[in-house]
Design brief:
alpha+beta, 3 domains, 5-stranded mixed sheet, 468 residues, rod-shaped, 19% strand, Heat Shock Protein 90, 5-stranded antiparallel sheet, 14 strands
Length: 468
Amino acid sequence: MAQNANPPKAPSLQRQLLMLVLVPLGLLVLANSWLSLNAARTTAGLIMDRTLLASARSMAEQIHVVNGVLEVNLLPSSIEMLASGEHDLIFYQIRAPDGELLAGVPDLPMAKAELKLDEADFHDINFRLMPLRIVQLVQPVPQQYSAGVARIAVGETLIAREKLTRELWFKGLQQQTLMVLAAGVMIWLGLKRGLAPLKHLRDEVRGRREGTLTRLDAPDAPAEVQPLVAALNDYMARLSLLIETQRRFIANATHQLRTPLTLLRTQASFGMREASLAGKDDALGAIRTSVDHLTRLTNQLLVLARAEPGTSHGARVAVDLLPMAAKVLADFSSAALDKQSDLGLDADVAELTVHGNPTLLRELISNLIDNALRYTPPSGTVTLFLRRSGQEALLRVEDNGPGIPEHEREKVFERFYRLDASKAEGSGLGLAIVREILTASEGTITLKDPPSGRTGLVVEVRLPLRNN
């Protein structure tokens, strides 16, 4: 299946952060708008109720006794104070203490409950199929009617009241919406400014030439991004080390394999030109020796590449060095017999367990034994000692060979370095491999002279013991 040529666009962090802020703010505005609507209703109700009550009291003050008759002479202002541009309908009713209608509409309902002086009763009713807000109060009747009270009721439709509610609510909602929009703009500008270091970092990475693995320098990046920058720098350092390791391996392989391959080609050509069987057998023997040398060199190069920093060293497990050392000595027993050398193991512990990679640790012991056998003359002695030294495992290889001069003991750990006086075959990689393995295993190596002034070399390797 063909891959999508246009992968989906990654979500914008700036847009996500903005939505994470604006969406809750929008929800708060919606919730607050409902609360504002109730508050607007309450405010509009208070304003309109006060106007309604003022109109009713104005009417109550216009009740007089004229020639012993209770009359009401309403001034136009008592009605006009309720007038609005919304054409609300006004209804009123004034009754004498005996219930006689003095003014207004007769069918406007009155409250059945008795009212106290200066007490106003507000309630909503449906009158003539219209919603109405009505107020009722009582007014003492002067002179001969002092024993009774007149009842006044004034009502109006709700058009102006509802309009005032909407205006108050919309004004508050408009202010809140403008505040949220202003907050959104300020947040967007703040995010744009705050994310500018990230964009600068992106541009720096994007503008790098292919293969550039130098550290990223982003001192102005936010504190939350610094761990990411540090992780990228750490990754690039490890990647750079891995690339350098591969480059060195290719360079080493190219340098070291060119000569043996050329020699093989020459030997093969010489054998093909030989007419006698003896000459061809000599050529085949030389080719076999060269192939053995080439095989060992290739294996050493692979082990060296595997042990170098920046490469995967495999799983680290508990390794008992005692059986591993015995197996390695058994593998070299044939080579020791060929040189009539004494190859032995001296261990005063029943177990010597470290934490490391079994393959690399085996190569470490093998290279130490191989080096000792190669550079020790025939009928020599090579002994591997295994000891426990505090919290470390001690491997000591002693031989009675020519040894290594003290001024060259650091150089022999360099790759492909060989002593000028040495006539033994080798690639100069043995001790270099050992040091790389010990670096990966957190161990150390030391070269010493044998005790009592004897000739030879002592190689001491220390590895941390496994913690139980």
